[in-house]
């Protein structure tokens, strides 16, 4: 196995990378097809018309509408389990202690020497009692205590102990008991901490006062003083706990939201009709079909995955074999294969998005992929890829062969319609052709299936929309692919054919003879390519730019020199050769600076091949220079033309230059010159590395002879118009 791999790698250094591209493409296509895949899931959408009847393949249950009764019962059970929240305020204790301290301070004021008379003292006692809502007798009794500070300490301690209990109102306590609530949540208002306690741990104010009696016995031994303390505490005690209604309701709402709806269950039996042909698909049908997908046997799902892998692998193998045997040129590089893989993956991804969306599957624009491949690579590969993509799209659409069919028809029509496209408006025309082809197919299928007029006309309109949409998409994204992959199309070439390009405008001013020469070469090369089936537009545009390297030193080239003068008369032949041959290098630099397309730059580089600069080589021989004149040093560096287009430009360039030297350009002399020049290039080996045949050379010679004869045709001599002295 390793030996086989090594042999293949030696033959094709890109073999491993090509394998990686193929495997990656297969994996991506399988992932896209299987994404969101389910039985019947992709085939139907709500509001569509069923094109076939569906029967249950096995028994299964369907989740129906929400069972309101059971769901409400579950919510009630969940909310009833939420314990009521009571909020305990520890600050109430501090407020009561502060109140007792204030009372004691007021009582101590009665001992002020300024209060001398009994009447003044009695008035002061009444004022204090009224201020704190306690009896004046209690104020009077407290004022007579011998150790008020000790009494105050006892009161503080009693309040701290008593107010540690959660005290609620009598009404709230009664509500708890009436509701049979056994436990509650007690939340500390200051810290936010919550604990669960028994409802019996909540006290009323009366319960707290009863507990105060037992505490007072423990704190004060003196019966009289104990009575004063008990009366004071009972008079100031207050509620410290309230029902947290908002908090309780918030928790109940949160508990209710956690309850999952309970749905009704509908049983579907094996062979039961789910959907009739021609029936409009509603929400219930979609629910049943979704349930059918979810209840698929795991073995069926695994089998489906295996089937997709097999089919994708099979089609990938077929495309690979086609490329290997019929498009072997594509295998020499990586750019075309990456482009083919990218277009295929993007097309299937777009198709999947449309399939899982509410949009009809007849909108899948497979013609976009077909047109892009036809324009950017070639038409034959576009047809093969369209067949592959159409079947895959049919599979992801729910095994709908009608969608595969319309994709195939529209895609192949787009390949033929896009042939020879040179303007973006022609892409729109191709899109209309696709649209009308889609209409014809969908109407025909509608009649075969016996669908009603409204249904198949609607489908047909979607088909027309598909074609127009495909053209718009191609028009928009074609420049992106051209720039990203550095691919020349006839559309971009036609834009370069505009003679207002900055380089051509500069040539008109600095090298007018070269400019005129380039235009004639363009016409010759274009006609030659048309005769032999090569890219005529590429040849013409490349001819316009093939001599841009002469702009810098235009005066050193014969077509820009005045008759009888030559800038080379005072130069050595070797220096002249260097100036002449350097125009190729200078042309490449200028072309790269102005971002001309790579194919044009290649033709600039190859348009002289390794040809001999014969004139200056002959001069070097005649002058008998000290240095031996080496023929190889007087040749262009090459390379020789690699394509038919480059060869046609080379021949047109030589023939046009040679024709200008003819003194009497009769048709027979022109024909002889053309054949002589072409034969010389052939004998010199300049055409060895391109695909031109002898038959092609004969056609090229005929075309060149015909055009040059037209250029140098003999004009009729008209008699001179007599001079009228009266005018």
Number of helices: 29
Radius of gyration, CA atoms, in whole angstroms: 50 Å
Give the terminus-to-terminus CA distance: 98 Å
Biggest pleated sheet:
4 strands, mixed
What are the low-pLDDT stretches, counting only 5+ consecutive residues below 50? 1-5, 723-727
- What name does CATH use for the topology of the largest domain? Arp2/3 complex 21 kDa subunit ARPC3
Strand order of the largest sheet: 6-5-3-8
Q: Class by helix and strand content?
A: mainly alpha
Number of strands: 10
Q: pLDDT average, as an integer?
A: 82
CATH class of the largest domain: Mainly Alpha
What does it look like?
With 727 residues, the protein is mostly helical. The protein has three domains: 2-38 and 296-487, Orthogonal Bundle (Arp2/3 complex 21 kDa subunit ARPC3), CATH 1.10.1760; 85-243, no CATH class; 492-711, Hypothetical protein af1432, CATH 1.10.3210. The chain is 63% helix and 6% strand. It has 29 helices and ten strands. The strands form four sheets. The chain has a four-stranded mixed β-sheet. Strands 1-10 form a two-stranded antiparallel ribbon. β5 and β6 (194-198) form a beta hairpin. The longest helix has 33 residues, at 453-485. It is elongated. Mean pLDDT is 82; it is low at 1-5 and 723-727.
